[in-house]
Amino acid sequence: MNRQTGGGPLAVGYALLFFAFLFGPLIIMVITAFNSSSFPRVTPWECFTTEWFGVLFGNGRLMNGLLNSVVIGIGVVLIAVPIGLAGALALSELGPKLRAALYTVLITPILVPGVVLGISTIVFWGALGRSVGAGYDSMFFNGMFLTLIGQVTFIAAYAMLVFIARLQRFDPTLTEAALDLGATPGQAFVKILLPFLAPAIGSAAFLTLLASFENYNTTVFTIMADSTFTTALASKVRLGTDPSLSALAVIIIGITLIGAIVNEAWTRRAEALRSGCAARSAVYGNPALAVIVHPATVLVLLLGLVGYLAWSGTQHDAGVCKQQILDEKLARQEQLLEEQRQRIRDQKAAEEATGTVTKPASPSAFGGAFNGLAPSPAAPATPATPKAPSAFGGAFNNLAPKTD
Fold first, then answer.
1. What are phi and psi of 48, to 5 degrees?
2. Are 208 and 75 in contact (CB under 8 A)?
3. Could you tell me the keywords of this UniProt record (predicted)?
């Protein structure tokens, strides 16, 4: 008996919950980025606005942190990718026992907590700078340099793992054949091994860039007085959030979608070129169609669409809507005040009709809660007999002996 799978109500419900959990926060952030409310919220909806994107770009600390993150990320890519490639090649040339030992050494930085890496980076380079007599304005105490070095110590291991996975599919007899035919080791590496590793190089570069950009645990210690985009964003969230962070999420989502669509166009084009003549002619036989489906064309069209949407957003004026919302809030506030005044008037009218007078409120800040603790008025004191004037102003009058 054949059983159908994947179509039950339970599976459908699970899939809906899964996608709601996965994409729900993204949808909410996209909506809140265009709500004029000063606090990120979906309801109640006030006015459609794009002003939060301007607030985001007008934040000098975030923009400076973004620039620092880009500089550090590029530096990490330029250093971590060659180190990871060297480590992967070394592991591929060693025996099993020595390979296991070296692999353990190279992979250990990933297992070390980021806090430990950050503090150890500061301590090591600070001690090294003091030992050579370097001042505090040298690179040994520079936050950008320390962050770059601190991130490379563990991000290079990520790149190495990518290269190891790629080298497992490489046939070493290709380089051996090239060497037998008279090629030098450098030529064999450049002509054979490097083209084979090209996809892995791109993947490792992208992975290391993202790992550097989003790192916080190590960076928060090594950046010193400077800030990266991640640390600046974290400090902004601690001090109070606003929809400008939702605008940032919209930008990140847009960049991700554009990259995914362009990559899909590139992949399909490569598959079409590798397929038979019929498939190639069906897609690229028409020159116009070939231009439209080209990844560069897709990228230009998507960027043009984003530019048009951004321009349209700047042309929208939410001032009238925001003023209307403000007037409604003021009217509602005045209505509540009038209702309160009416209740006071009704209460006074009821008191006058029944002859009951409400005790006036105490002027005390505590509502008269401590009035019962006030001391009772003392009885008038009997006038004391005047004493002879003293040279000490009467300071020792109480020491005088009592008269019988």
1. -80, 130
2. no
3. Cell membrane, Membrane, Transmembrane, Transmembrane helix, Transport
- Cα separation, 243 vs 233, in Å, equals 13
Q: Which residues of 144-158 are buried (b: 16+ CB within 10 A; e: fewer)?
A: bbbbbbbbbbbbbbb
Q: Are 144 and 72 in contact (CB under 8 A)?
A: yes
Closest of 224, 225, 102, 242 to residue 233, by C-alpha: 242
Q: Sign of the CA dihedral 93, 98, 103, 105?
A: negative
Give me the helices (H) in 181-294, please: 185-188, 194-214, 219-222, 229-239, 244-274, 277-284, 287-292
Quick count: other Cβ atoms within 10 Å of Cβ 123?
10
User: Cα dist. 203→77, 257, 277, 348 in Å?
Assistant: 11, 18, 30, 79
Q: What pLDDT score does 1 carry? A: 44
Report the SS3 class of residue 35: strand
Whole-number pLDDT of residue 291: 76
Q: Of 141, 114, 107, which Cα lies nearest the Cα of 212?
A: 114
Q: What sign for the dihedral angle of Cα 256, 259, 262, 266?
A: negative
Asked if omega into 375 is within 30° of 0 (cis), the reply is no
Instruction: Give the amino acid at 100.
Output: A
**Phi, psi torsion values for 35, nearest 5 degrees:** -100, 135
Cβ 229 vs Cβ 71: under 8 Å: no
Instruction: Tell me which fold the domain 41-240 belongs to.
Output: MetI-like fold (1.10.3720)
Which residues are 35's β-sheet partners?
48
SS3 378: coil
Kindly give the interhelix angle for 60-93 and 229-239, rounded to the nearest 10 degrees: 130
